[in-house]
């Protein structure tokens, strides 16, 4: 029997079974995490005197050689060795002889694969945090160029009140900030070490789990061996955080698609981020934001997929859990591409400030400000609101915007109106007046920008 576990078997594995159950085609992505975990494990075995120190050293060197060979693309992973763990163990034995067989002392593939996954999730979580930061930087840069750009703010996709474009962009900055916070918070749970849990019940060897934990820079060890080998919460958490992040990305993408349409013409995406049509020569399609929006589906799918795999699964390890990998690999790949495209796409888009301003100058989005005007003159808001409703209706019937009505027309609705109403209705004033904390007023947006930049700076100290 060529299998590492072949002892109790009398027949070769059916080829189809071998192919169907093998994970090597994808879990080879974990090769370096697997070697890192093994080096820590064997170091601990040597230090604890569970295997002779020289053997531990030989194994460690052997593992390093294998890592180098993998790096150089000099190894072939084989389906007959099923997964990354047994492929590497086999390579080790081929490399250094039977002493390599001592590596698996006091551990099982169950705590081994869980450890690999913890190391992997921790690594990619940090990578995602860095990539999100790049998008945030692009948003801040674009916001800085647009602290005076007035655009319509929407509710129900109907013009609601004028806002600064910088304010709109920064809304996404804060969404991403929370995404980052969720990812970094999850690290404290990812930082639990499963190694030493054995197959499910612990081990008879006098291992030092704390030492292995220290070597791998985990913050603690799982206190329960059953939980250690069967927990995939940390993968779920990554997928859930990724899903929320993709939700945000899909919303921003949608806005970029709308804004760059002929109907809006608020922005133009750089040519290098668009594609053409094979039949309609005039087209410039926002394929990238469309795909980002579309790829949100697979990221949600990977979360739902793993939730479903784990639902109702009895303790402890079950082969079902091998299904934790392809989904997260796909999600990481999707996020990596999305974030790497989003940052330069935001940085290079052209903002059509004039079109945005024209839009707010030709609508009724300053109506709330007339109400507020009457309120400052002593009228209860509800009454003011009713009057403005009538004024807007009158304006629509007369085909005039609020700035185009004469003072005499205003006075027919309320004697409280005076010439100063016109200054109040200028879009710039309408924006400026919203100076409450977190509002779109210029001063507030500048403060927000400062806060955002502080957050970015903190990240790097
Ligand atoms: N390839 C397996 C996985 O990814 C490794 C653990 C296998 N353990 C076992 N008892 N068959 O889950």
Automatic annotation (TrEMBL):
Keywords: Amino-acid biosynthesis, Arginine biosynthesis, Cytoplasm, Lyase. It is an enzyme of class 4 (lyase). It catalyses: 2-(N(omega)-L-arginino)succinate = fumarate + L-arginine. Pathway: Amino-acid biosynthesis; L-arginine biosynthesis; L-arginine from L-ornithine and carbamoyl phosphate: step 3/3. InterPro entries: Arg_succ_lyase_C, Argininosuccinate_lyase, Fumarase/histidase_N, Fumarate_lyase_CS, Fumarate_lyase_fam, Fumarate_lyase_N, L-Aspartase-like. It comes from the Bacteria. Residues 364-432 form the Argininosuccinate lyase C-terminal domain. Its EC number is 4.3.2.1. Residues 7-301 form the Fumarate lyase N-terminal domain. GO terms for biological process: L-arginine biosynthetic process via ornithine. The keyword Amino-acid biosynthesis applies. PROSITE patterns: FUMARATE_LYASES. It is found in: Cytoplasm. GO terms for molecular function: argininosuccinate lyase activity. One of its GO terms (cellular component) is cytosol. Belongs to the lyase 1 family. Argininosuccinate lyase subfamily. This is Argininosuccinate lyase. It comes from Heyndrickxia ginsengihumi. The gene is argH.
């Amino acid at each position: 029997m060529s299998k590492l576990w072949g002892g109790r078997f009398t027949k070769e594995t059916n080829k189809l079974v071998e192919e169907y159950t093998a994970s090597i085609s994808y879990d080879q992505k974990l090769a370096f995490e697997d070697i890192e975990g093994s080096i820590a494990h064997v170091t601990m075995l040597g230090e604890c005197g569970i295997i002779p120190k020289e053997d531990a050293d030989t194994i460690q060197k052997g593992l390093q050689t294998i890592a180098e060979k993998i790096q150089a693309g000099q190894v072939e992973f084989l389906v007959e060795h099923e997964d990354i763990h047994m492929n590497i163990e086999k390579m080790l034995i081929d490399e250094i002889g039977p002493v390599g067989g001592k590596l698996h002392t006091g551990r099982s593939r169950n705590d081994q694969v869980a450890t690999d996954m913890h190391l992997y999730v921790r690594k990619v979580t940090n990578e995602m945090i860095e990539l999100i930061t790049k998008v945030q930087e692009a948003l801040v840069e674009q916001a800085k160029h647009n602290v005076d750009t007035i655009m319509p703010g929407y509710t129900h996709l109907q013009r609601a009140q004028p806002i600064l474009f910088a304010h709109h962009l920064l809304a996404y900055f804060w969404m991403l900030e929370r995404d980052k916070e969720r990812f970094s918070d999850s690290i404290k749970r990812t930082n639990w070490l499963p190694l030493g849990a054995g197959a499910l019940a612990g081990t008879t060897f006098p291992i030092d789990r704390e030492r292995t934990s220290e070597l791998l820079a985990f913050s603690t060890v799982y206190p329960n061996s059953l939980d250690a080998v069967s927990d995939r919460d940390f993968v779920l958490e990554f997928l859930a955080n990724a899903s929320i992040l993709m939700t945000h990305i899909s919303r921003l993408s949608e806005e970029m698609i709308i804004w760059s349409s002929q109907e809006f013409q608020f922005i133009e995406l750089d040519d290098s981020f668009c594609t053409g049509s094979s039949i309609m020569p005039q087209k410039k399609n926002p394929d990238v934001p469309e795909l980002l929006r579309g790829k949100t589906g697979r990221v949600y799918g990977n979360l739902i997929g793993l939730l479903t795999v784990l639902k109702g699964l009895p303790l402890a390890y079950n082969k079902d859990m091998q299904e934790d990998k392809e989904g997260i690999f796909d999600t990481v790949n999707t996020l990596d591409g999305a974030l790497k495209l989003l940052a330069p796409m935001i940085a290079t888009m052209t903002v059509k400030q004039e079109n945005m301003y024209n839009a707010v100058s030709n609508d009724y989005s300053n109506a709330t400000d007339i109400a507020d005007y009457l309120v400052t003159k002593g009228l209860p808001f509800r009454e003011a609101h009713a009057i403005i409703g009538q004024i807007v209706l009158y304006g629509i019937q007369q085909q005039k915007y609020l700035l185009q009505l004469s003072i005499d027309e205003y006075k027919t609705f309320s004697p409280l109106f005076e010439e100063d109403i016109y200054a109040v209705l200028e879009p710039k004033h309408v924006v400026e007046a919203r100076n409450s904390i977190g509002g779109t007023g210029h001063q507030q947006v500048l403060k927000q920008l400062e806060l955002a930049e502080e957050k970015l700076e903190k990240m790097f100290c």
